[in-house]
Specification:
- It is a single chain.
- With 71 residues, this protein is mostly helical.
- It has a domain at 28-63.
- Helix content is 82%, strand content 0%.
- The chain has helices spanning 10-37, 41-70.
- It comes from Rhizobium wuzhouense.
Length: 71
Amino acid sequence: MEDTVAIETRSEFALWAIERAKEIVSQEGTALALAARDMDEEGLREAGHKLGAAISDALLEVFDGLLGSEG
């Protein structure tokens, strides 16, 4: 898990989102591209699920941070 980042402006959020998206694509997107190239349906399914999970995790990370700042 990454260090905690304080996001106080829309611009800071945009920068965080871009960096997080780069990380997700570099970690999960490669497997998806390779499975597509190899026409590996099971690999595509698995890589797609991992990519979706990584995106969901990133969104929940932000949501959890918002909940923490309200209390």
